[in-house]
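Q: Convert this sequence to structure tokens.
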Amino acid sequence: MNNTIIKVKNLSVTRGNELIIDNLSFELVRGRALAIIGPNGAGKTMLFRALLNLIEYEGTIEWKKGVKIGYVPQRFATEKDFPLTVEEFLGFKNNHQQAQIKILTMLGVKLRNVSDSGDNHHIVRHLLHKRLSDLSGGELQRVLIAFALFDEPDVLLFDEPTSGVDLGAEETIYSQLHKLQDQKKLSMFLISHDLNIVYRYADEVLCLNKQKVCFGEPTKVLNETTLQHLYGGEAALYKHKH
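A:
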């Protein structure tokens, strides 16, 4: 496979009598970031599940031998009385508190209702003692990203990784992930509805609506015609933000 991290050929996914993904083919070179865009129900999350071998599919998915994959889901629900703390959760991957503090600080952790006195490590320590069920959406997403990064993966799969995160924190997370990508030659798969993120951080984009609508560099393949074809009447909602 040379420097190719994955080859997908003639991939089809069916659930019941519904064809979710139809004859999809693409490949990605190591160290590149691929954004996957498309309307709701287009098959984006199902594609991730197929790439992780969590569902049945037809066709072939060939990962580079020995590749390590990290995954951040769009949602991670916990019961309100679930007692597991952030420190205990991250401890399944790395039980050294300083390592946990370092990665959460890198991801720009800020707590609700806690003033930043300049000691961000103190803020992160406070977060480590919180239960997962008590986290805000943004806090939980950072914890899930940290959990995925502890394995030092070759590939990161993000299903809308900054869902529930404010714009400032979103920028911090994406910029740090971009630095990691450059430093470690990570390959990244990113599902996003924000074309601003796609233009800024993706090397290539896969436009998916059950079938492949477009594939290539965002500035070359994304245009009004492509977006209209991809989203139909909703195209105006997904235009590039300035």
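The longest strand covers residues 4-15.
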